[in-house]
Amino acid sequence: xxxxxxxIENISLxxxxxxxxxxxxxxxxxxIASIKRDGxxxxxxxxxxxxxxELVGGHRRYxxxxxxxxxxIPAIVRELSDTEAANFVYLDNEQREDFNDYQxxxxxxxxLEEKGVTQAKLAKELGISQGRISRLRQLADAPxxxxxYLNMPQGRSEEHTSELQSPDHLV
Length: 171
Known about the structure:
This protein is of the alpha/beta class. It is built from eight helices and five strands. About 25% of the residues are buried.
């Protein structure tokens, strides 16, 4: 398999918009301090959309650079379809330590609302089971108590969430 062709460019932050598939996350002070001290060690990934770009990878790095007031950011520019871009966002987030099951569920819920996207299709695209998609999708509608629990720094799994959603816990 050959690597997809891409180029790295310095792109104005004003030309980059966030992906609609990006789930809320937190940019740590450590990341901002590291980039301020050492520079950006890895470029973000964008795709061209009209005369601008959509951010598909490196959302926390982008937010950190933006908070530092940099005018441009090094970016890998890749030609991606809407589906490829949405999946790229998910897979990029999977590499984060703090990506939790509630955030996974939010992403999956957004994708399943798209015309023609089924659990079977999404399972094949992402390489995960339909059962896991179903369980994670349910988290998008979880009660506030469950969402708060999942967003704690130590993170929680879908098994913990199933326990919290049981009728005994929601009394």
